[in-house]
Amino acid sequence: MSTAADLPMMHLLLRQGRLPAALSLGLLLVALLLLGIEPGLAMFAAGLLLLSVAVGVVQAYYAVRVQLDASLLQLLLREHLQGDAAAERVDAALHTAGLRRRDAQAPVRGWDVRWIGMRRLLVRQYVATLLQFSVLLLAVLWPQT
User: Fold this and answer.
1) CA distance linking residue 16 with residue 38, whole number of Å
2) CA torsion, points 144, 138, 27, 120, in degrees to nearest 10?
């Protein structure tokens, strides 16, 4: 896998995490609104709304992680770094921010492993948004008796 060609592509791919983040925020607000203004909610429907809020928080966590990866890739593109130098720069930035321990003897992780992790976070973000939408829809459609 050529890292020179993949850095811009992966950055563009990770920017696609903005859509589920915005959608999830809207769903979170709807769930909180329904919890606050609907006095006659069935206990199960209220539980579903709370579950939707919890899944929205999980999605927000994934959104922050995806945005961090996209920002790191943008930093690499701006500094024109490639290959091992780019990987070392990412590890140094994460270490400086206190997000990753840096072991001097550990080998630098390859870009294939990094791509897999970045894509996994993006997929989890989309899945969390879909789950949040499904649970919220079920709560709204649940009979209010």
Assistant:
1) 34
2) 160
Per-residue pLDDT tens for 18-74? 999 999 999 999 999 998 888 777 888 889 999 999 999 999 999 999 999 999 889
pTM exceeds 0.90, yes or no: no
Query: Which of these, 48, 35, 23, lies nearest to 136 by C-alpha position?
Result: 48
End-to-end CA distance of the chain: 57
CA dihedral over 39, 41, 42, 47, signed as positive or negative: negative
Rg (CA), the chain: 19
